[in-house]
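Form 7-S
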Amino acid sequence: MLDAKKQPLLVPLVDRKVIPYIQIGKTSVNDATTENCFCDYHDNVAFAVIEKGAPDFEDSRVDMKFIYAYKAFIFEYYKQWIAMDIFRTNFKDNSKAFMSPDMVAMYRMLQLKHKEFEPVKKHFDSQIMAGTYNGIYTYSIRIPEQIAFADYSYIAPNYDMNGKKIMHTRKGVMHRIALTIFPEKTQSWLMMSCLESEKEIFEKFFGKCSMHHTIS
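Output:
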């Protein structure tokens, strides 16, 4: 991961400008995969079905698919929420520094993401509070070997596996998929999830992914 404790590398450019690059360092799996947006209690409650002694993933487990999708979404939501909070706090302290076109554009982008993320969060919240796991469509791909990495993200891919553009933006709102990939002892899994209402947007993309991978 990016290691803030290491001295940044100062890389000179042709125009004599210097860009600092933060170096990468090894870290534990626990530190790499732990986010601080939940307290210990709620972290344990929210992700109990996929962590801390949970069984291996089963493609028939709707609850597991739902929580993996939620994990990818909520951590990205938290990052955007923190970015907006920092922006607003710093604006109060030094408003002139945030009047430039670049900073205004960044603020508008954060506002737009908030608008896009809130309906998704509302759906997850309502299902979790009700103890149900409905309204999420997941496409799973089994990889018949143990890979050497794990990751999760909440993204809007621009192109499918054949280079065809994915029309993920409708009426000015970008729609995304929750992507999770992780290894087990004898196999690995790649999961792509979206709201059921967004299934039509990504269904062809999911299908084309299956043509480029070994499926169980």
